[in-house]
Amino acid sequence: MTRVVFLLVPGLHLLDLAGPAQVFGMAADAGLPYRLAYVADHPAPVDPRETAPPCPGAPATVPTAQGVPLQASTDWPDLAPGDIAVVPGWRWGDARPHAAPVSARAARRLAAHHAAGGTVASVCAGAFALAHAGLLDGRRCTTHHELQDALARRHPRATVVRDVLYVTDGRVITSAGIASGIDLALHLVASRHGAGAAARTARAMVVYARRNGDEPQASALLRHRAHVSDAVHRAQDLIDARFARPLPLHALAAEAGVSERTLTRRFTAATGLTPLRYQQELRLERAEHLIGQGATTDAAARAVGFTDARMLRRLRASP
Questions:
Q1: If both were cysteines, with which of 129, 189, 198, 201 could 102 make a disulfide (CB 3.0 to 4.6 Å apart)?
Q2: Ranges for the HTH araC/xylS-type domain (predicted)?
């Protein structure tokens, strides 16, 4: 079971939290091993007239940028190396330049989790919390486009990658503003459970199954999912699961609930490919991976369902 713990900082944006929480929650509903947890943070006040932070373990109310208060324990759960800590962003206009973005206690917990082999992630201004914990020193990262200059200026040891959805540097993953937290979470699901699982989760959320982070993503499983045709998605689900086997058009059409002619027309309109060509792209992609791991062309061709390695060689040679 993978625990995903969200650090709730005062003034956080609801979508920064709800987007990735929805991804992991729906992945769990689909049978993937995720369990969500929430920890309230309370940075130490800089003004003695402000409310002192609660004692560790006590419940705390966290105000949000949208006015809906959230309540969570201030106790951190025990985290294993396979777990994920996520810091959603907050309304930057409310932050004072001289105030730490998270408490020293939270910064230590984030740093300790990463040092123990865990994954840490941020959405939007949450990158400043990771930087405060020392986790962005010498690393590539990103944040909301309006905050990129401030992050680069305040944390010169970090390499800020501009105008991308997310950046992965080892076990530190940072994303841009607001809705990009969904892309970050889908990327984590894909990297741990395969692109098909991420595509199914994205489809359930009615969002594009994107993984275009800091560089072009090669996965055909996601590259051709940016449409809303339910019949085509059903056919793709079957091809994704069985691309190494023969898949006659009538079987795909039956799965999609439409005629063969209708499926071909809708599939091509939605993806730019025929069902056969889509299956060939999946086979080619998998074969390239196997060859990169040391397999011969003949062995890779057999593993992905080609009866003749000449077809694989032809596909590899085509532009």
A1: 129
A2: 233-319
- E strand or H helix that includes residue 191: helix 180-193
Contact 106, 114 (CB under 8 A): no
Q: Minimal CA–CA distance to 76: which of 5, 142, 159?
A: 5
CA-CA-CA-CA dihedral for 302, 306, 308, 309, to nearest 10: -70
Residue 30 resides in a domain: yes
pLDDT of residue 247: 95
8 A C-beta contact, residue 187 and residue 166: yes
DSSP string, 71-84: EEESPPPP--TT-E
Residue 265, H or E segment: helix 260-271
Q: Are residues 186 and 236 in the same domain?
A: no
For residues 98 and 180, state if they share a domain: yes
Counting the structural domains of the chain, the total is 2
Q: Is residue 210, in this structure, part of any structural domain at all?
A: no
In a shared domain, residues 181 and 246: no
Q: What is the per-residue pLDDT for 185? A: 95
Distance (Å, whole) CA 168 – CA 180: 13
pLDDT reported for residue 50: 44
Domain shared by 102 and 183, yes or no: yes
Task: Please give the helix or strand (H or E) that residue 38 lies within, else none.
Answer: strand 34-40
Give the CATH number of the domain where residue 127 resides: 3.40.50.880
Burial class (CB in 10 A: 0-12, 13-18, 19+), 101: buried
| Residues, the chain | 319
- How open is the CA angle 246-199-215, to the nearest 5 degrees? 105
